[in-house]
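Researcher: Let's continue the batch. This sequence belongs to Acyl-CoA dehydrogenase domain protein, and it's 51 residues. Same format as the previous ones, please.
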Amino acid sequence: MLEPSGGPLNRIFGRGTPLRSRAADAALSMQDRLPEPVMRAAMKVLRPPGR
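Model: Same format as before. Here are the structure tokens for Acyl-CoA dehydrogenase domain protein:
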């Protein structure tokens, strides 16, 4: 893990944050227009962190 669960990066990009939610919504709206490998990479980045 890169930082403790309450760190500043986690508060900005962590699970359930508005920034992450908007990015996921944008990726899902583009899924029919993007090639499969690009979409797979985008969803891998947006996937919730492992516990």
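Researcher: Any comment?
Model: The longest helix spans residues 18-29.
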